[in-house]
Amino acid sequence: MSTLRVSFSAKPWLWSFIAAVLIWLATIAFTGGQGAGGLLSSALGFSAFFVIVGLGQLFVITTGPGNIDLSIPANIALCGALGMKLMAGDAGLIAPALLAVLVAGVAIGCFNYGLIRLLRIPPIIATLSASFILQSLAIAYGRSVRIQPPPLFYEFCTGRLLGVPYLALAVSLLTAAMAVVLARTRYGRWVLAIGQNARAAELAGGRVGRIRFATYVLSAVFAALCGVLLAGFSGGASLAMGEEYLLASIAVVVIGGTSVAGGFSNVPGLWGAALFLYLLVSMLNTFGASAGIRLICTGVIIIAVIIAVSARQQGGRR
Amino acid sequence: MKAHSFRRVLLCTALSLAPWLAQAATADKTIALSNNYAGNAWRQNMLASWDATGKQAVKDGVVAQVDAFTTAENQATEQAAQIQNLILQGYNAIVVDAASPTALNGAIKQACDAGIVVVSFDGTVSEPCAYRISMNFKQSGVAQMDYLAQRFPQGANVLEVRGLAGVSVDELIHSGIVAGAQKYPQLKIVGTVNGNWSQTAAQKAVAGVLPSLPKVDAVVTQGDDGYGTAQAFSAAGRPTPVVIFGNREEELSWWKQQRDAHGYQSFSISSAPSISSLAFWVAQQVLDGKQFPHDLESPAATVTQETLDASLQGLPKGGIVSQPVSVDDLARLKPAATAAN
Predict the structure, then answer these.
(1) β-strand partners of B248
(2) Least confident of A173-187, A218-232, B5-19, B97-111
(3) Under CATH, which number does the domain A2-317 receive?
(4) In whole angstroms, what is the distance from residue A52 CA to residue A63 CA?
(5) Strand runs (DSSP E) across B122-202, as ranges?
(6) How far apart are CA B236 and CA B289, in angstroms?
(7) pTM for this predicted structure
(8) Does the predicted interface ipTM exceed a cut of 0.95?
(9) What does the alpha-carbon distance between residue A245 and residue B110 come to, in Å, rounded to a whole number?
(10) Local confidence band at A13 (pLDDT 50, 70, 90 cut-offs)
């Protein structure tokens, strides 16, 4: 049974990677092989951020239709500023600041779920309103000041081992761990069960409320982590730094082969999708395409990949 | 009763202290700012400048009330509704940093028809009844290329970092860069990316295109993207090119640090956030019955190797180079060539 499921889910998993590799090959063919390694290395580095927020969004989306976390960009802006301010450029304060950021992430997740559950607001509205509050907090707290990260933290966020960024290695481990959590632990199986049929899961003894609560907290914590790492990577936090992660966090989940309707997920596909998105923009930039052409191509190619992925999924499942 | 006379005394004192007596005529006027976006450092500085100028003007009795309103979603429809609210609230003048040059025109026209003075700045509106104050963005693009031509008489490979696609300011600065490239054929544009006026987005876009590029000698930018660009070069282990900056404190600090370490030289140009104060004074003066052309050009703020230390002096963390604006500065505003639009 489980080997059967693995072979099915392996298909969309492969699709996003194949697309990423094709685009990478097209780019280096255009440049005549120049910069092949450098491109891959920077793609791994930037994709790591997409994957962190994608992991959280994936769990949220998996818990069923209507579940989505739109507070991610504001969360990134706030926690990036919080982390940099608490570290204050001092290597000794890295650990306490990281801890504080994770606590802030938990608080944001609790707040999101509080709005959804206690006030009975649909997640899409609840997390969007939460994001207004968080962004305002980020503006008031951060005051648009760019505080440099401590050199040690900067080294970690930008350093490489044989061309592979440390962050990409760390996030790969995190991805593997979360794949195991989803497939093997009780929590992960309830997440899938709720996404497939919340009522049935409840009748089977699943604590739907608690599982969703934990999932929103998980997403907020990952977004908070992404915020502080991104601030370290780009030499300080800025108010607008989370903006692109709203669509990107959803795009990597969907292109990675996870069902938008919930219940069926594909954790490794996040990496393929993140690499694909980054390499796609780089390729069009390398070709010298104008911004208009670039956006049209991005849209068309994303639609093509999603159609390919979903066609495979349905073929596999039926 | 007592409070009333006290206020009158205060008002009289303020008026007698004010060097421009003509402004008494606007002492009962109200001015509102309609702003479409607050989520970056430039807008924060712009709002701070508005706030400081407005508070001082109210204190001096120049106007009765000055407020600022920012929409949450950066959308034209939302801002149009906001302007309609401001009309109903009876403001005498509305100053606008607009989400769109055309989509607000209906609401702007309603305001004009209601006898309200409308002054747009930065993000200007095309409705003829409104005033427009803006930097000459095309010229700022040309100025960057002028500097590079003088730095690299033998020629150079130039990377262009553009702003947000589809926004008129991005097109204008880009047209200046293109004009500069035609003027100086030795400057070769080897790549173009969109940095979306965000340090992180610029860093990402530049890092993606860098491996495929030949040696890059210089980078032209649009503001709030120079620091991220420099980060991308150092992360890729490439020698740092001459990056033109956009007057942000973090950029100037980095430039100073590089200069002190190995004699790095550059140039910086951007729109000064105090343009909101300029717009305030234009609105106040129009309320006072003064005449202005409807298209005005605000000066660009620049930083050179010589003025770097002076510009950093007193610039707060996260600040942007700006100059304090008073009503007297209006005399130096030039009418803008409308052909740019």
Answers:
(1) B320
(2) B5-19
(3) 1.10.3470
(4) 18
(5) 131-135, 156-162, 187-194
(6) 58
(7) 0.81
(8) no
(9) 38
(10) confident
- What are the extents of the domains in chain B? 13-129+272-299+323-340, 137-244
Determine whether domain B13-129+272-299+323-340 maps to CATH 3.40.50.2300.
Answer: yes
Quick one: pLDDT at residue B96? 96
d(CA B297, CA B333): 6
Q: 3-class secondary structure for A17-63?
A: HHHHHHHHHHHHHHHCCCCHHHHHHHHHHHHHHHHHHHHHHHHHHHC
Average pLDDT over all residues of chain A: 87
Q: Which residue carries 């970690």 as its tokens?
A: A156
Two structure tokens written together for B247? 């007057």
- pLDDT surpassing 80 at residue A57: yes
Mean pLDDT of A6-27: 76
Q: Give CA–CA dist A230/A234, Å, rounded.
A: 6
Low-confidence ranges of chain B (pLDDT < 70): 1-24, 337-341
> Quick check: A117 pLDDT over 70?
yes
Nearest to B194 among A238, A241, A291 (CB): A291
CATH topology (fold) of B137-244: Rossmann fold (3.40.50)
From chain A, pick out residues whose CB is under 8 angstroms from the CB of B45.
144
Judged against a pLDDT cut of 80, whether residue A207 lies above it is answered with: yes
Asked if B210 reaches chain A (Cβ–Cβ under 8 Å), the answer is: yes
Taking CB atoms and an 8 Å limit, are B317 and A34 in contact across chains?
no
- Smallest CA–CA distance from A39 into chain B, residue: B211
Give the domain ranges of chain A. Answer: 2-317
Cβ-in-10-Å burial (0-12, 13-18, 19+) of B29 comes to buried
pLDDT at A195: 92
Test the B interface: residue of A40, A158, A234, A298 with most B CBs within 10 Å = A234
pLDDT digits (tens, 9 = 90+) for A286-309: 888 788 888 888 888 778 877 776
**A235 contact residues in B (CB cutoff 8 A):** 227, 231, 250
